[in-house]
Amino acid sequence: MPSSNGASSSSRQPADMNAVFSEISRGESVTSKLRKVSPSSQTHKNPSLRAGGSAVPPSSATTLNRSDSQTSVSSRNGGRSPVPGRKPEILRTRKPPKKELEGNKWLIENYDSNPSEGMLEIRASISHSILISRCTKTTIRVIGKANAISLDNCTAVSLVIDSLVSAVDVIKGSKFEMQVLGTLPTIMLDQVDGAALYLGRESLGVEVFTSKCSGVNVNIPGGQREEEEDYVERALPEQIKSVVEGGKVVSEIVEHAG
Length: 258
Prior knowledge:
Largest sheet: 12 strands, mixed
Structural class: alpha/beta
Radius of gyration: 41 Å
Strand content: 35-45%
Number of strands: 14
Distance between the termini: 124 Å
Helix content: 10-25%
């Protein structure tokens, strides 16, 4: 005798088939609930999807990869965006040389080696300040008494001046040379690697301030008479010794014999 379970199964089967045929007979309304596939995700229109077996369009995959990469970099930097590195000075496009008087300020920029006429001459007055920047292997002659001179990011620049009202200020330079023919109250050197200062008899009272400098030498007249042009070289101190005495820090220059 057939079981009750078998009877219920056989009676349910015709009912299910009737429901299927009923849906088919509805025509186009059957597909009204289906999700439409965009052309970029259709494999018959994109051979790359068939080859790779992925239904994700290439543009989306690229976007995801870039997003993942940026997320990983951001997580390594503590949530901060990566900062592009500074281009080395040698790779930067060098601008043309410039010698121009703007108001009371002379601008000397981007000279590389001496010009064809020899040293670069500037005729200055007492109200003129002079800014020299990004120059290399250039000799500059300042004629007359100027107010102040600043040098920034220069290499192997030689400066010859008559007199100044204020100071010569050199920042981030190397192989710097200067000769003072007249008077000069102050010389300031900051982050200078190698400098030779030639003082005249009228400029022996100059004050020289140095910060983070090395290899700075001052050349002073050695003879007693003015016609004697022999110079004596004196090195500026680079090493300082500091000790604590009575609750205070006492510093002194370290001198090397010989």
